[in-house]
Amino acid sequence: MQAAISVEKIREDFPILKRTVRDNKPLVYLDNASTTQKPNQVIDAINDYYRNHNANIHRAVYALAEEATEAYEATRDKIAKFLNIKSREEIIFVRGTTEAINLVAYAWGRDNVKEGDIVVTTEYEHHSNIVPWQLLTQEKKAKLEYICVDDDGNLMIEQLDTYLATGKVRLVTFSLMSNVLGTITDAEKIVSKCRAAGVPILIDGAQAVPHMTVDIQGLDCDFFAFSAHKMLGPTGIGVLWVRKSILETMRPFHGGGDMIREVHKYETTWNDLPYKFEAGTPNIADVVAFGAAIDYLENIGMDTIRQHEVDITKYALEKMSKVKGITIYGTKDISKRGGVISFNFHDVHPHDVAHIIDREGVAIRSGHHCAQVLMERLNVAATNRASFYIYNTREDVDALVRSLEKVAELFKL
Amino acid sequence: MSDPLYTEIIIDEAKHPHNHGTMDSPDISQHDANPMCGDSITLQMKIKNNVIEDIMWSGKGCTICTACTSVLTQLIKGKDIDNARGLPKETILGELGLEHLIQQSPIRIKCALLSLKVLKMGLYSYLADKLKDGGVDNLKEEAASLY
């Protein structure tokens, strides 16, 4: 049994949660699948970096440069420990999950996907795990295929067998948790099928890493991507992990400073891993602050965080399913879903719902959530989405439900 | 409960929109969508002697988008093209008391003016095809700079 989370104590660390919005309404922030708020520890880390340590990294020999480099590289080590990664050389800092996946599509995909080959993704991917593969497969005259989603919001993983049987699949890519339905993917099942067929696997961990224990060696995939800003860290920082044996075969993504060993007029040799893939001056301050975010999460414990989210999601599903006129998408099996609840309210467009409840201080996302392929599958133009994190309470859920009554009142439902 | 945006007139207009549906063999058929929120509107028009004889709209939109599209179709049905192409955004917003969106809501203004953008693009394609003298290029620019 995990220790229960002390939400009140946690909320103290998040200055933004103390502010009011609109007509003096307390902020009820329920858009965590989009981005999370930042604790003082992360904000202070950015502040401290610029006030006391700022210098460019990996080059100069003076004290500040040494401190900045140490702080930057310390985050790489924290990530390795946090996700059970074998070698720090496999960790590449990028702008976010989107850039991570584009890096793979460009630097690995262009050398490994050829005409007639197949890349397999799923119907519940974020656009960032669809569009780079469309670009690649169109360029290479290859095919993009989808694992479909069933009515319960789960992937129909057996469809993968048909694709793998062609012998033409070069990559299978999927999200470890859907950003719309909250479904947790049965990664083990997909990975074992791919391993049996000798096909590399990319996992989009943007929604999963912030909310549960993730063990990259245990997952046994080949590429793994996630973003700092969805796990209390700053925006503009993400991580691409690539299995070393593959990373060693990959050509660079961006050319420029820091990724080189020696540059001559017509040829260049590359820097060691992972620096070969980190061209230019990186987002140093935010990498440092990302380290503070990881410390913060580890202090609470990822299993404790997952337990808190299971509790609040269970409460929210119970409470919300009693609201007249609500349609909730995705599985009801709490062991298979994260703290994300997509819903529609009567036939009111989600944009209208979100706008009206915003006046009550409740911040939820409305729209297609960068998942238009899934919207088509669900046969809706858009949904509302409430998503929870460590600082959300049952009172936040109550406020959401109460605010829906305002929508009903206004639309005479 | 009252709300500055969701007034009775807007909610009624959106619940019972005018000119909703599709038509056979339109002279103009134009589509556009708001990438941010998923509003998606197609306008179809029949043109006779330079007059917009009939107009229908289809697609999915929020309350603001639906109400404004409904009002737009009523405003330009039966008008000649020259009249319709100059339709200012203030007129549509004014019909529904939404002028405040221009200043106050850079996000929802896109919902309100999507159909006007579609109208201008539709007329542009139709006229550019007919005139071939570039005299309608301003329409394209207007459509692009509406919001």
Overview of this protein structure:
The complex is a heterodimer of chains A (413) and B (147). Chain A has 413 residues and is α/β, with parallel strands linked by helices. Chain A contains 14 helices and 17 strands. Chain A has 2 domains: 7-30 and 301-410, Alpha-Beta Complex (Aspartate Aminotransferase, domain 1); 44-298, Type I PLP-dependent aspartate aminotransferase-like (Major domain) (Aspartate Aminotransferase, domain 2). In chain A, strand 7, helix 7 and strand 8 form a beta-alpha-beta unit. In chain A, helix 3 crosses helix 10 (284-300) and helix 4 runs parallel beside helix 5 (131-140). The longest helix of chain A is centred in the first third of the chain and has 20 residues, at 63-82. Chain B has a single domain (8-144), classed as Sufe protein. Chain: A (Alpha-Beta Complex), CATH 3.90.1010.10. Chain B is globular. The interface between A and B is medium-sized, with 20 and 19 residues.
Largest sheet of chain A, described in full? Answer: 7 strands, mixed
The number of E-state strands of chain A comes to: 17
Mean pLDDT of chain B: 91
Number of beta-strand segments of chain B: 3
List the helices and strands and how they pair.
The complex is a heterodimer of chains A (413) and B (147).
Chain A: H1 7-12, E1 20-21, E2 25-26, E3 28-29, H2 40-53, H3 63-82, E4 91-94, H4 97-112, E5 118-122, H5 131-140, E6 143-147, H6 159-165, E7 169-175, H7 187-197, E8 201-204, H8 216-219, E9 223-227, E10 238-242, H9 244-247, E11 260-263, E12 268-270, H10 284-300, H11 302-321, E13 326-328, E14 340-345, H12 350-358, E15 362-363, E16 365-367, H13 372-378, E17 383-387, H14 394-410
Parallel strand pairs in A: 3-15, 5-6, 5-7, 7-8, 8-9
Antiparallel strand pairs in A: 1-2, 4-10, 9-10, 11-12, 13-14, 14-17, 16-17
Helix pairs in contact in A: 2-10, 3-10, 4-5, 6-7, 11-14, 12-14
Chain B: H1 8-15, E1 28-33, E2 40-48, E3 51-60, H2 63-76, H3 81-85, H4 89-95, H5 100-104, H6 108-131, H7 137-144
Antiparallel strand pairs in B: 1-2, 2-3
